[in-house]
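Let us work through a complete example step by step.
Step 1: write down the sequence.
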Amino acid sequence: MQTAAHYLNKLAQATHRPEDELMAAAFRVGLCQLWREFTLEGYLRGEISRTQAIAEAGIDSVELADRQRQAVQEDLEWAMKE
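Step 2: predict the structure and record it as tokens.
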């Protein structure tokens, strides 16, 4: 597996962007992803409303979380029948 420095160098070369600009973008994207995950965890635990989760994480992420939760529930129900 390559190091983060390797990926950073390759991206800088490929995009002709400075490494510090790429690092700032990576930090921003990573932080947004962490916030989305935090929001969805709160939603799935019932700590925040669906409306609030949609406002924070987006409708696509909330709908995906709903489908994944439903799939897990169906798997558990199936397993309990065995």
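Step 3: interpret the result. The chain has one domain: 4-81.
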